[in-house]
Design a protein that fits this description.
- The structure is a single chain.
- This protein is of the alpha+beta class.
- The protein contains four helices and nine strands, in the order ββββαβββββααα.
- The chain has a four-stranded antiparallel sheet. It has a three-stranded antiparallel sheet with strand order 7-8-9.
Length: about 130
């Protein structure tokens, strides 16, 4: 079985993952599987169509509320339920608007506002 991640191709050979793109370097399947679970694949083509980035650490606790879709908002991260960019929510929060106000304005949950802000702060820290 072949598995794709950004810039890498993995081959499942005899129960071991081998990174074909890195000269046969071995990969830890548990870590790779965590990443692959956050990708939605097209059922027909098998191509990746949506990615749910991590917003928390440990990563396993990170909800899938923020999404990246190449066909929505030019691939910028959005709150998945309403397609509002995380950057807009974060900018308004930085300007002093409360999470409750933002949730009401966009008709989303406060948790979605929190995750959008958390995602943008992670991006700034990187």
């Amino acid at each position: 079985n072949l598995r794709l991640t950004e810039g890498n191709v993995f081959l499942d050979h005899m129960g071991k993952l081998i990174n074909v793109g890195k000269g046969g370097q071995g990969a830890m399947p548990e870590i790779l599987e965590q990443y692959l679970r956050r990708i939605r694949w097209d059922e027909v083509t098998g191509a990746p169509v949506e990615y749910f980035p991590w917003t928390r650490s440990p990563e396993l606790l990170s909800p899938q509320l923020i999404t990246i879709l190449p066909v929505v908002a030019f691939g910028r991260p959005i709150v998945g339920s309403k397609a509002i960019t995380t950057a807009i929510i974060s900018e308004r929060s930085n300007a002093g608007e409360s999470m409750t106000e933002l949730a009401e304005d966009y008709d989303i949950q406060v948790l979605e506002v929190e995750e959008a802000i958390r995602y943008e702060r992670l991006e700034l820290a990187a």
